[in-house]
Amino acid sequence: MKKKRFWFRSALLAILVIAIGYTIYNSIYEDSGTYIKKGDKAPNFVLTDLNGNRVELEDYRGKGVFLNFWGTWCKPCEREMPYMQRQYETYKKQGVEILAVNVSETNVSVKNFADRYRLSFPIPMDKQREVTKAYGIGPIPTTILIDKNGKVVGRTSESLSEEKIISFMEKIKP
Amino acid sequence: MQTITCECGHSNPYGTSLCQACGKPLENDVEVLSSMRYEGSARRSQTYKKTIVDHIWNFFSSVRVGVWLIVIILVAAAIGTIFPQETFIPPNVDPASHYESEYGTLGLIYYLLGFHNLYGSWWFIILLGMLGLSIIIASLDRGIPLYKALKTQRVTRHDQFMKNQRLFSVSKEVEIEEVKYTLESLRYKVREENGNLFAEKGRFSRWGAYVNHVGLIIFLTGGMLRFFPGMYVDDVLWVREGEKASIPGTKSDEGQYYLENNEFILEMYDKEEKKFNSALSSVDGEVAKNYQSNVTLYKTEPNHTIGEEPELIKVKDGEIRVNEPFKFDSFALYQTDFKLNEFNKMSFELEEKSTGKKFGKLTVDLHEPEKKYDLGNGYRVEIEEYFPNFILNEQKQPSTINNLPDNPAFVFSMYSPQTPKGEKAFVGIQKNIEAGENKFKMSFAGIETKDLTALTVRKDHTLWIIALGGIIFMIGVTQGLYWNYRRIWIKQNQEEVWAAAHTNKNWYGLKKDLEFLADKSNLMPLADKEVNSK
Questions:
Q1: Which region among A86-90, A150-154, B207-211, B275-279 has the lowest average model confidence (pLDDT)?
Q2: How many Å apart are CA A47 and CA A127, to the nearest integer?
């Protein structure tokens, strides 16, 4: 009888804990429906960059991709741009590409900004916020690290220091 | 398992205070009346304290713990209404800065503590889960022993049980058959055993609380399912007139839905019209008659790549009014909000200041301005800087708050045959600052606006579960509140006839029954101990 009671109680508690745990898991990850996190396959997208070139994520398979979401009006984004540019120059030869997706701004504003900081990496223009929505981007800047197999290996929404960027580059270097 | 055998021969689970069968107090210090709530049955949690599982079980079995959980949940839920939840703040703003700029330090704290997304936060879900656990365990712990005790109760009760009831009397020479008949006429269910009677009525009302709890658990389960993929979508979609936007939450293997906003209509009541005249005369300002969006639904091909210019297939047209949603698949779009007259295009003319002569007009699309505007004959204008939502930042530099054209400002370079090197001017709404002495200026020549509509995207497969839970909950409440469990015991004790009665609520009603019974038989009226002692 005691054994039976123990198992009944344990089973009931376990069922409830699992149900609550699964609900919380969903509330964190599935809430936006599309929140892309570490371990996911990075959804493919196609955008036109500032210079009018077509950028498709899948074309970068085999390279590490440093996928950054930003806006000219966002101060923390502005701070990390020069660091990104400098490390881009170093790591491009080693097979890491930066894609700095601009969130719904005008070409004029972004062009001025890119000229001011002499940015040479592609800046895909997400005019309709389709990619921003698909990746479940909340605050910007958000950086998503994609390895050579197209798998997400990291995601952060902090303003990055140069050291941090270097460590990220090392992580996704093929 | 340890058991206690009563002198009547019934064996009770360990921890029982009144014998399930005859009602004899099993320990000396047991108060009969206060033990009647759960029939003196053993709350099982109180008796087993062995393993960690038992300890967790016992914790949640406590009504006090349950009440505290409810209090904490209520307080937290109330705090969540102080400032708007994240879902309701304007789109395109960063919540981190929004709460601070709108509501100050309190807003920042609110955000940092996660109250901006309270109802979906992990700790709120845990609280609700714990409440669910508490409801289930507390019900099992009380409901099952109560059921057993009520099922095992015998007709003949122990003297001590009888004597200790709140209503009690001793009579002589009572016609038992008459008592039985009277009780039956009062719709009691009467059982007889060795000349003793047991009459009961409304036993099912004792299950009210448990039915009610089952309803609550179903309700909570429905709420929980909202977090499961595919069960629930609640999102907001803003679409500018004449534009298409992807509908959030509607991407599937068959493609992605898009919605075009053909027109947003806001109609007001006509105050001059006779029909509404008197009703509207007391109201200041306009009264809205209709909020409506005329839309077209599209779908992409299944292999649509995100971000790519979609190849859209028209599905259907529709009109959305308040309370008249637009439905497709299992989704519904509701009219929720609107924004009138958002700046869309601004027009300027290049003007020579000395003569007032104009050299052509340009129209700037505020969502995608051109870099250069050629006005012909050697006159042209270039946009050097564009600030969609102009502000002077902390360093007194012109900048923009965000990417919405709510307060557009430009730095223009104006070129003419007389001024081939160009002249610069900063132009905003009611602002025109020149860099040095300029010969030319940009004069404002009109603005075009567009309306936006906001629609709620809703899909809900949990509603019927929540409704079912609510209905069962109400049945339980009714069952427990509008009925009560009345019991009357009649016992022949040598020459005497003892009568005792109990109810879980509504003693007045029970006493009415007993008065009627005393009228119709020789039974002595039952005295109420609680009245006497006062």
A1: B275-279
A2: 9
- Classified as helix, coil or strand, B393 is coil
pLDDT 10s digits, B89-133: 776 567 777 888 888 889 888 888 888 888 888 889 999 999 999
Judge whether B51 is closer than 8 Å to chain A, CB to CB.
yes
Residues 6+ apart with CB under 8 A from B289: B267, B268, B269
Residue A37 in domain = no
Q: Mark whether A67 and A126 lie in a shared domain.
A: yes
Prediction ipTM score: 0.77
Hey, what are B295's tokens? Answer: 């839309």
Measure the N-to-C terminal CA separation of chain B; round to a whole number of Å: 43
Asked if B400 lies within 8 A of A73 by C-beta distance, the reply is: yes
The closest CB to that of B53, out of A9, A103, A127, belongs to: A9
A38 in a structural domain: no
Same domain, A146 and A90: yes
On whether both A150 and A89 belong to a single domain, the answer is: yes
Claim to verify: residue A79 and residue A56 sit in the same structural domain? yes
pLDDT at residue number B534: 43
Which of B240, B261, B386, B411 is the best residue to mutate to test the A interface, defined by the most A CB atoms within 10 Å of its own CB? B386
- Sign for the CA dihedral angle at A163, A168, A169, A170 comes to positive
Q: Looking at beta carbons, which residues of chain A come within 8 Å of B386?
A: 106, 108-109, 112
> Which of A108, A113, A157, A158 should be substituted to probe chain B, the one whose Cβ sees the most B Cβ atoms within 10 Å?
A108
Do A139 and B94 make contact, defined as CB atoms within 8 angstroms?
yes
- pLDDT tens sequence across B251-274: 887 888 999 999 999 998 887 778
Same domain, residue pair A64 and A23: no
Task: Kindly state whether residues A18 and A86 are assigned to the same domain.
Answer: no
Judge residue B508's burial from the number of C-beta atoms within 10 Å of its C-beta, 0-12 exposed, 13-18 middle, 19 or more buried: exposed
For chain A, the domain total comes to 2
Residue of A32, A47, A128 best to disrupt the B interface, most CBs of B under 10 A = A128
Whole-number Å distance between alpha carbons of B53 and A7: 9
Find out whether B442 and B411 touch, Cβ atoms under 8 Å. no
Question: Do A16 and A51 fall into the same domain?
Answer: no
Domains in chain B: boundaries: 232-340+454-459, 349-441
Range of the domain at A14: 1-31
Q: Quick one: which of B342, B267, B266, B258 has its CA closest to B299?
A: B258
Three-class DSSP category at A47 = strand
State how far the Cα of A123 lies from the Cα of A51, in Å rounded to an integer: 8
CB-nearest partner of B57 from A9, A56, A140: A9
